[in-house]
Amino acid sequence: MGDHNHGDPTTSDSVAKAGQGQVEKFQDPGLPPHRPRLADKDPRAANRAERQVAVLLTISVIGTLLFFFGYFAIPLDESTTISTLRLQNVLLGMGTAFAMLGIGVGVVHWAKTLMPDHEIAEERHAVRTEEDRQIAETMVSEIISESGIKRRRLIRYTLIGAGVLAILPPIGILRDLSKNLDPAVLGHTLWKEGTRLARDPEGTPIKAADVTFGSAFHVIPEGLNELHEGKLDEKAKSVVLLMRLNPEDLHPSPGREDWAYNGIVAYSKICTHVGCPVALYEQQTHHLLCPCHQSTFDVTQQCKVIFGPASRALPQLPITVNSEGYLVARSDFHEPVGPSFWERALLEKESGR
Fold first, then answer.
1. pTM
2. What residues contact 181, with CB distance under 8 A and at least 6 apart?
3. Where are the transmembrane segments (predicted)?
4. Model pLDDT for residues 222-234, shown as the tens digit of each residue
């Protein structure tokens, strides 16, 4: 007869018991073996890597100069066309991309090929403020010394040149935010009583019957496309979004009961946060979304802000229909369009503060 206890988990070795075979402490595997890089062994490889880093930083400099060429050499005035504006945007975008990419890739390549890559391990230590400061100071000194920036003059000079030039494009952009810019320009648009609503960009008038439930139209004032001067500026101020809802879903405030027509409403397309174009309409929720910073506006509540950084509702354009059934404006906007700081500046100017 065999052993009756065969297979019993309390006596069989086929099942591990608690504590059986446990290791009291994990063994420290130690640091992996150091593999020197080619630049560590061959001075010619190190010099070649240094030149590669300098080339990448020079690309950053070229990108910054390309940005300035697009910013200053291409004028924007009343005669500016869409193609000219697109060319400038390409130059600004490519210039900024190369300026940032050149510095980023150059520094990474520098660290991977020339800076020391030895492995170290140190024990945790108690944090003491003064000791911590001294350790941090020592670490910074060691990093500067090990980076080789003091002895590698070619990298040092190209890095300084690329870094100094890279901060200039933002300064150039902020230059346009001058305090001398009159905020009153956003207080009035091309909309006026009787102006027909037209599709953007075709410029064809819109009849109320064309606007179905759930639809959304990008709208400009009729005649905008015929302008020869200030066309882009006027469009930037005047463009609106046109939607049709069930009239029972709208909740107009007192005095705005006749600003819509059979559930058709029109609101400024310019986000009241920083002026991005509000471009997405959710038919089921009746929400308008700004793609830049996710500000969300409720069309049923006069486009009040329900999410995001925008601080006020989108301005509403009062509309009605004419005798031919075309949608027309009742008047201009009753408040400045655009970011909220424009409105505050305008009000301060009008009040003399």
1. 0.53
2. none
3. 53-74, 90-111, 154-174
4. 998 888 766 777 8
